[in-house]
Structure formats: C-alpha cells, structure tokens
Design brief:
Blueprint: H1 4-14, H2 22-34, E1 38-39, H3 40-47, H4 52-64, E2 68-72, E3 78-82, E4 92-95, E5 101-103, E6 127-130, H5 133-138
Parallel strand pairs: 4-6
Antiparallel strand pairs: 1-3, 2-3, 4-5
Helix pairs in contact: 1-2, 2-4
Length: 144
C-alpha cells in the first residue's frame, strides 16, 4: 500500500509524462515527507537501499524538471526541497539552533527589491535566520 507521499510523488511525475522509476519515486516521496530541505546524505540515510550516484542523478533530474529546488547554505552543502512551489522564487528560514532550512510560503523576494535602472536579476535567494518554533519551545529566550 502506498503512503500519501508516494501517491503524491507518483501524481507529480505523471503530470509531465515522466517515467515512474523506483529511485525517482522514492527520492521525491522522501523530500515531500520531510517538509524541509535535506542534504544528499540525509536522503541517503532515509532511503538506505539506493546508492549515492543514483541519488545524485535523481536529484539533478528532479531539479531540472522543477520538482525540487536546491539551496546552498553557509556550510557549502546543497540541500534539496520539494513541496509547495519548488519552481517559484521564495524566501527560506534557517534555524540557528538545529540547522533546519525551510521554505517560507507566500514570500516573493523579487517583488520587494528595488534594483538600479538597467539591472536584470535572474535569481533571488533570501534566507531569514533565527530560531524555529520547535527550538523556541525547547529552551527559553536568551538561552542560546
């Protein structure tokens, strides 16, 4: 029996007529289930049965077809996220305590930027830093 995330992954891949391979379904379902950005290593740890090269190739394919987007962090490790609007620009939130990187829904950074005349942006990356709700509940304010 399929999980809701496997069904969702299958429907998304079918929406463009893509081949439904096991690795594509597993990686996309794992990202949809996580609800946050995951590193290649985190994806491997969750799936176990796939080799690292296959996961890299699947992630590249998923990004090319806009099912996921990848984010660079200060640690220079790519993180991948699937979900609400992988193909649309939006801001992200990075928790200073646990390190999770999450999408901020309904945020459109490009519309709020004023660039000098003649400048034409191709991509906007905005990351808000602070403490996520889960970490804020664990420790009182000021006890970072």
């Amino acid at each position: 029996m399929q999980t809701p995330f496997q069904s969702q992954a299958q429907a998304r891949l079918r929406s463009i007529g893509a081949r439904l391979t096991g690795p594509r379904l597993k990686v996309l379902a794992a990202l949809l289930k996580s609800g946050r950005a995951l590193t290649h290593q985190e994806i491997l740890a969750r799936l176990g049965a796939l080799d690292r090269v296959t996961v890299y190739r699947v992630l590249e394919w998923l990004e090319k077809h806009e099912f996921v987007h990848k984010l660079a962090d200060d640690d220079r490790v790519w993180r991948f996220v699937a979900g609400h609007d992988a193909e649309k620009e939006h801001a992200h939130f990075k928790c200073d305590r646990c390190g999770t990187l999450s999408c901020l829904k309904d945020s459109t950074p490009r519309n709020k930027l004023k660039l000098p005349p003649g400048y034409r942006p191709s991509r906007v990356d905005v990351t808000v830093r602070g403490v996520c709700a889960r970490c804020a509940r664990r420790a009182p304010p000021g006890r970072d």
